[in-house]
Amino acid sequence: MSTVTTHEAFVHPALFYRTEQEYTRQTVAFLREGLASGEPMAVAVPGPNLELIKAGLGGDAGGILFLDMTEAGRNPGRIIPKVLRGFVDAHPKGRVRIIGEPIWAGRSAVEYPACAQHEALINVAFEGRAVTILCPYDEVRLDPEVIADAKVTHPTVISGDGRESVSDVYDWQAVVDRYNQALATAPDAAAFSYGREDLPAVRQFALAQAMRLGMAGERLMDVELAVAELTTNSVVHGGGRGTLAVWTEQEQLVCEVRDAGRLTDPLAGRRPPEPGQLGGRGLMLVHYVADLVRVHTGDDGTTVRFYLSL
């Protein structure tokens, strides 16, 4: 791998690989550069790729934080605040180096828009910070559209043989906008329209529907917390009223809140609130408890949809 340029504050290259050998060679070279510079490092990639990197590093793997991205980053909206910012904020002095692989062949079509937006939003989330985040992409197993999006969300691309080039199509905002997709409510969804006086009732409605559809145990607490946060946001920030819909989809419970509010911060729910800040925690809490969160915002309001495995 050619040395990733580090004179800029934030560096965000995509690595396009085709074989396990290319993957291991380039990721290990990236980490060895960090070891030579004494940089704190983290690796968040799918489990099998974690093992490739650990084997490639051998005795040099000590001191690097390793996370299985299929667990830590199952919800793409949780990766920036909990995985990346969590590590970067713990090392405020000097450059931090991370490998993050949030998109793999097992990602579903429902998950992918949130994944693409995540990769785009990294660029604004870490703007001006001394951080290098390398994002590997499997050119063989991922769809061509995914590879094309990666060139738009990463200012720099690195090939499997280590050649580095500037992406001439880089435009992170375009990907955020493209995947701000309207979300259609399932026709068989149970629905509840609510105002301020209905907040206790809408939470009970959500729990009753979740139990009816097969949710049980501790996950019911996640339903209650997420619905409480979103419906309260509707009352406080979303015009005072909203509608909750609940249904199941491919062995997942789906809860959706619609209101007249409009999100103007693309990092809403992914940016940890500053000390003393009022608000900003509700949507992030939903990201923390849910398996997936999809958001659409437009002139007619905002829809937040979260998924929990049954």
Automatic annotation (TrEMBL):
<dbReference type="InterPro" id="IPR025847">
    <property type="entry name" value="MEDS_domain"/>
</dbReference>
<dbReference type="Pfam" id="PF13581">
    <property type="entry name" value="HATPase_c_2"/>
</dbReference>
<dbReference type="InterPro" id="IPR036890">
    <property type="entry name" value="HATPase_C_sf"/>
</dbReference>
<dbReference type="Pfam" id="PF14417">
    <property type="entry name" value="MEDS"/>
</dbReference>
<feature type="domain" description="MEDS">
    <location>
        <begin position="12"/>
        <end position="155"/>
    </location>
</feature>
<feature type="domain" description="Histidine kinase/HSP90-like ATPase">
    <location>
        <begin position="197"/>
        <end position="306"/>
    </location>
</feature>
<protein>
    <submittedName>
        <fullName>Anti-sigma factor RsbA family regulatory protein</fullName>
    </submittedName>
</protein>
<dbReference type="InterPro" id="IPR047718">
    <property type="entry name" value="RsbA-like_anti_sig"/>
</dbReference>
<keyword id="KW-0723">Serine/threonine-protein kinase</keyword>
<keyword id="KW-0418">Kinase</keyword>
<dbReference type="InterPro" id="IPR003594">
    <property type="entry name" value="HATPase_dom"/>
</dbReference>
<keyword id="KW-0808">Transferase</keyword>
<dbReference type="InterPro" id="IPR050267">
    <property type="entry name" value="Anti-sigma-factor_SerPK"/>
</dbReference>
